Amino acid sequence: xxxxxxxxxxxxxxxxxxxxxxxxxxxxxxxxxxxxxxxxxxxxxxxxxxxxxxxxxxxxxxxxxxxxxxxxxxxxxxxxxxxxxxxxxxxxxxxxxxxxxxxxxxxxxxxxxxxxxxxxxxxxxxxxxxxxxxxxxxxxxxxxxxxxxxxxxxxxxxxxxxxxxxxxxxxxxxxxxxxxxxxxxxxxxxxxxxxxxxxxxxxxxxxxxxxxxxxxxxxxxxxxxxxxxxxxxxxxxxxxxxxxxxxxxxxxxxxxxxxxxxxxxxxxxxxxxxxxxxxxxxxxxxxxxxxxxxxxxxxxxxxxxxxxxxxxxxxxxxxxxxxxxxxxxxxxxxxxxxxxxxxxxxxxxxxxxxxxxxxxxxxxxxxxxxxxxxxxxxxxxxxxxxxxxxxxxxxxxxxxxxxxxxxxxx
Length: 410
Description:
The chain is mostly beta strands and 410 residues long. It has a single domain (3-409), classed as Porin (Beta Barrel), CATH 2.40.160. The protein is 13% helix and 50% strand. The protein contains five helices and 21 strands. The strands form two sheets. It has a 19-stranded antiparallel sheet that branches. Strands 12-13 form a two-stranded antiparallel ribbon. Strand 18 (353-357) and strand 19 form a beta hairpin. Helix 3 runs antiparallel to helix 4 (314-325). This is DUF3570 domain-containing protein. It comes from Chitinimonas lacunae.
C-alpha cells in the first residue's frame, strides 16, 4: 500500500472516534517547485548543479485523541533535473506524537515527539534546541513539514514564574546527525515583559547559557531578542578555512575549541492596524565566516575550479563539494538583517521579505496566499538571490526558487 493510502486509511479510522476534546484535521497538498541554477560573477559553482523541477503530492493528518496529539505526513515526490535521471521518493513520517499531563496544581509532564518553543526569533533561533528550524521561504509551514523533537519535559508553572527541565534529541537539520541533550529554562513574566534564562548541554559537549526577552513597549510595538553562548561549536567547516590545510576535510573541527561562540538575534514587530505588520531582526552567529576566512574561501573556490577544469576526478569534485557546503542554509557569514511585511486584503495575504548579508548579498522573497474557498488555499513563493561580485550570494549556485502549492483542509 502506498504511503498516502496508508495515511488516508488511518485518517478514516480516527474519524470514527468522537469526543469533546478529540479532533482531526486532514490536509491534501500538491506543490511544484522550480530551482534554477546560476553561474555568477567570478565563480562557476552553479555549472555543477542542474536546474530542476520538483513535484509533490502529500497528505497530512493532525489531531488529538484522549489527550494524545499527533501529526503524520505521507508524500510522493518526483524530481526532474535538467541533467541526470528522474528520481522518485515516497515517504511516511510521524511528525508529532505526544501527551501532556498535569501533576498537581502547578506541574506538567510532556512526553513524546513535539516542540518546546523557547526562542522568540523568526530569522534565527539561538535557543531553538527543541523546535523546528524556521525555513525563511516557508515561515508559515504551508507544506506541513515541521517535525517535532523526541523529548521528555517537566514544567512547574506559577502566576509569574515557570521552570522547565527537558531531555531529548537535538533538532534535525537536512538529515544531519541528532544529538541527545538536556536543557533548563527559567522564566518570569508580567503584563509587558517576559524574561527567561536558559542552560543547555549536548551529549559530549559543554554547557552553554543564554536568555531571551519580549517587551511590549507600546500596544503596537513589541521588542524581542535572544542569545546563547558556549565554548566550542558543532557547525561543519572545511578545515582549510581554519588552519590552511592543503585538502578539503569537512568536519566539526571546533567542537572542543576553547573559544566562546555567541549566537544572537534582536528584533521588533510593529503592528499597523489589524491586518498589517512589519518585522525587523538583526542576527549574529560567531560560527560564520569572518572577513579573513571569507577571503580565504574566495581563493579556494578559484583554486578548486581551476583544478576541476584541468582534471575532473573525484578528488577535484570533492573539493568543489566542500566549497558548496560552506554556503550554510542559515548563512555562511556572521551578520544578517531581516525585514518582513505581513498584510492581507480580502482573500489575499502577502508576506514579502528581504534578508541582507555582508558584502551586499540580498535574498528577496515574495510570498503569499489566496483563499479559494473555506477549505482550499493557493500558496505561492518566489525567492531570488543576488549579490555584489565576491559576496556570499554571488557564490550561491542558485539563481531563484519558485513554488506554487494548493492546500485542501477538511
